[in-house]
Amino acid sequence: MGGYSLEKDNYLGEIKGLSTLEEDLEALKPHEHLGLIYNTRQEWKETIVPFIKLGLEKGEKCAYIMDSSYDNKLRDYLKKEGVEVSSYEKSGQLVLLDESEAYNKDGDFEPAIMIQLLINEAHKALDDDFKALRISGEMSWVLQDQSGLDRLLEYENRLNQDFLPRYPCSIICQYDLQKFDPEIIKGVVMTHSYLIKGGEIYKNFYHVPPYEFQDTSLAEKEVEIWLNNLEKEHKIRRREELYAEVLSKSSQSFVIGLLDGKILFNNPAFNELVGYSPDEISSLSWDKDLTPPEWLQQEKIILQEMEKSGHPVRYEKEYLKKDGTRVPIEILTHPSYNQAGEFNYYYFFINDISSRKKVEEELLISENKYHTLFENAESGIFLIRDGLFVECNQKVLEIFKVLEEDILGKTPADFSPHLQEDGTTSRVKAEKLIHNALNGEPQYFEWQHLRQDGTTFFTEVSLNRLKIGEEYLLQAIVMDITGRKRAEILLKESEHRHRMVGELISDFAYSCVLDDDGDYGVDWITGSFYHITGFSKKDLDSHRCWMFTVHPDDAPLAQEQLQNLKPGNNNVKVFRIISNQGEIIWLRNHIECVEDNGRWRIYGAAQDISRKKKYLHDLKRELEINRSLSRIYAPLISDSSSMEDVALVIFQESKKLTQSQNGYVGMVDPENQNLVVLTHSSMMVDCELVDVDDKIRFPPREDDYYSSLWDHSLNKGKGFYTNQPENHKTSQGIPSGHIKLNNFISVPVMAENELLGQIALANSTDGYNDNDLEALEKLAEFYALAIQRMRYKEDLVNSIKDKELLLRETHHRVKNNLQIIASLLNLQSAETQEEEAQEFCRVSQDRVRSMALIHEKLYKSPNISRINFYDYVKSLTESLFHNYTTYPGSVKLELDIDNISLDLDTAIPCGLLLNELITNSLKYAFPQGDTGTITINFKSLAAGEYQLVIGDDGVGLPPGFELDKVETLGLQIVLSLVKQIDGTIKLDQTSGTVYTIHFQEISYQNRV
Fold it and tell me: Residue 531: CB partners within 8 Å, gap ≥ 6?
């Protein structure tokens, strides 16, 4: 047979479940020949009806040769199976022939004539475009005469040799056991290789090819077949024994269970699984005794569905072991049916899945843990597939103020303005960033987002590639930095603050586990670690822990943090790490130890405090400079001090501030422009320099320029430094007898574009930088005042010039002290976490700066008793706009100020008034980046009266606001200042907010 096995004695085959008769008939192919031996009409019907029906469905021509038994019922049986018999007969696909038209066409059966008939029918079928021919019929012609057996053998021989191999035809020969005597049936059995009996197709062990049957004595052939069958049956038994041994030694549990719950058979693996002996198992029920009650109903439903479908099922449940414990199992169940098609019993293949369940439980715990971290993260987290948001945590919904369905399935560009801050189209820039991240290049950037209500906000985004299964996704960690962006703008009041907030504040969190060797290995870390340090994930993986970045000098401190650490303990340490570019980064590392499934785990948060460290360093530097200025002040104003005394103090403080070993301080001789060195270190031993009056002099050239590296700052009128003197463009080499220069710095001493002197230093231990240059320039300002004072000393002992100079020095000193106060307020603001305290410090800084600005304008003004108010207002508003404008350009300033000068007593309250009212407008008049204008008018009226108008066209004050009932500190200060200058103030809320103040300049009174 082609395409299927007809052997029904296969032990494992029976366990696995055999095909039905109809399935075997469906697998039947042309060129096949079977014999049907039956007792009842039902047996005949179960074979012939599907044989004909399947042929019709396959597009084959079907011919049936009838006699007088059951054949007349064939049409009815086919119709009951849904076959349109009349339609098939009309088309010629179904042909029902009488035996007189086939076997006994001429009165007697002739094998040759019958074969020719089959050939003709096969040709007709193919000519009519049928795929093949299918024939069946009763073999009643065998009963016509005694030679029937001989004719049968001849027919079988011709059929198998001359017809079936050449023509696409399948044949079933029918034999009714009630009509044929045993001798004929014996011949049938011996002449068919495959037999149908009792609803099964069998491979015939007793088959003898017809040509052999005719050529060999029957007895000899039967003996040969019996002996062969003995050998085959022996092999079958051996095979059954082998299968039984396989089952008994299999590590997989196997059970045959009956419908009533009895266990028909089980292997030893099953005994081991449930803990019962073979004798105990025989008295147990596989459902009620071994299955927990809560599983019974579910299993019953599963098995009922399997019985209906006839297909095996796989499901999970638990077994109750003998010791009362439970074991999780997975069962593959096959149904078994008897020959009548009735369900018989179950085959159970059982696997212990305890280990898998444990892994699944651990995986679920891990997933829950990371899901909790995902949902409770302080940053928004997206998952992106194909450029679309496919998952997000709760923080995203809070940041974007949307529901989950509003954001999933959208692109980053859908929640962004058309252009980013750098002018790039949001969609184009997002696609480029996503492309780079998918190629394995982590992306860290700032992004401006757009909410559905039209408001914009700023975020810091970390974009990294994740591999989930065989698919690459992107993880985007989003942090709302709108507040920080505004803070950056507000903190741009000085250069060192620019540097402090010029870069993003970066922290990172991590988790690490203690291994068996007593070492901690990182198993989770935020992407900001790579951003801060510049190292890659590969670098981290190779070291297992990020501690490889710790500065060697701080390694003991970092290790000390981990010593004696136990679950429940936590501590904080501050130490340095080194980035992959060699940059020193200060970290505040906060760790906490917990016990996690029997392991010690550290959760840590490392804060980058480098900017704070640098800010403290800058402030300390500023205080050092002011202390130096304080030490210089006494000899500078002392009548007994000579120019050499002042130069010596300047020289000593300069060396101290810059850590210099050598240098000199000089003054320009106004008569010949020689630079006279007043004090110096032993840089020059036998140097050939002009020496007049025991002073070293540097004379200018004929073109009034000074020569070489020492004089570069004198010619340019600007300070400079170099840490490679030999490579500087003005270097002419070191004179004979001069010490070696490792580095050099020089600052000219200037007053109103006049060159007065020079401070020059060399050989700093750490090299020179911008801070050193700034410090020397401040000393040079004091030195310039001293030189001017000395020049006019004899003529100005009691003159106004001397008082004016002293007053100018006083204003300069007051301005410096006010700047120190502002710096201290800024430091206090950085140390506190309370927003109210930070706001108080910032407002106080602005008030102090407004007063410091007046003193700065006075000591630089030609008239030190009065201040030009237009210049003052312009400088003050530039500073306030820089600090308080979140959206540059959104608020404009219009100034209309007469040429007015005020004395100090009037200027300071006016300056504070301006500071308070302009700050209020910038903070509250234009919310969320609204546009508008602030106007300042300052007019001189008749009779010495002034009118100051400060207004804006913003949102206005709250309804019901009354100026004489204010409670805020800022406006209370305004009212107090107006009273201080004997003025009046009016409020106009018609369009925005406008304050009009009238006052006269305060008459100066002598203080006692």
Answer: 442, 444, 462, 506
